[in-house]
């Protein structure tokens, strides 16, 4: 289980945290001719090798590099505006299936746990990373069906402010849940509602209000579910 958690951490770091928007756009623009596609796959292999921390498992890192390249290349060639959401989910599912397959294969080897961190700690790291950019990007993909025009917002805001607010609030909710401070979750949701929906009332746009409400509930809901799952696994 610990090995699987480490490989998932490496995946989320490589696919979401270390991959910038400009990096992704260059891949999408040049596709198979883009050096960024191959650099991205190599980064995944190096991250996997780093977290495996066992040079004898170089073949596992190589498999991750090759399969990541093939899966991402296929996604780039097949992606259209209509199927971007479904291909994103299929892409992530295939990557995770490869990781699970390697985990089951490597478990037959007596791999020494050289990282002196408990399974509890590694699971906490996985949940924390998942609740930052990965969930943010998943919500962004989900909301492509309700893309707002500039006229729909009517509110000036800081660049990427919503992204950072979302990540921080999900991490806070997660910490509150695993520490048993459920009332703090309600307080945080109330505080956000006071500030956020006060601004929305100025916009006088029902579409924007519904957009933000759905996003807030999904963001909080995912963080709560991850926190409850973490607690159940730690029992």
Structural class: mainly alpha
What Rg is obtained from the alpha carbons, in whole angstroms? 20 Å
Shape: flat
Uncertain spans, ≥5 residues at pLDDT below 50? none
User: What percentage of amino acids are in beta strands?
Assistant: under 5%
Key features of this structure:
235 residues; mainly alpha; 2 domains
Outline the fold blueprint.
Elements: H1 2-17, H2 21-30, H3 35-52, H4 58-78, H5 84-106, H6 119-130, H7 133-142, H8 150-153, H9 161-178, H10 182-203, H11 206-233
InterPro entries: Phage_phiKZ_Orf197
Protein name: DUF3307 domain-containing protein
Keywords: Membrane, Transmembrane, Transmembrane helix
Structure report:
The chain is an all-alpha fold and 235 residues long. The chain folds into two domains: 2-115, no CATH class; 145-233. The protein is built from eleven helices and no strands. It has helices at residues 2-17, 21-30, 35-52, 58-78, 84-106, 119-130, 133-142, 150-153, 161-178, 182-203, 206-233. Helix 1 packs antiparallel against helix 3 (35-52), helix 1 (2-17) packs antiparallel against helix 5 and helix 9 runs parallel beside helix 11. The two termini are 15 Å apart. The model has no long low-confidence stretch (mean pLDDT 84). It holds the Pfam family DUF3307. Keywords: Membrane, Transmembrane, Transmembrane helix. This is DUF3307 domain-containing protein. The chain crosses the membrane at residues 86-106, 121-143, 171-191, 211-230.
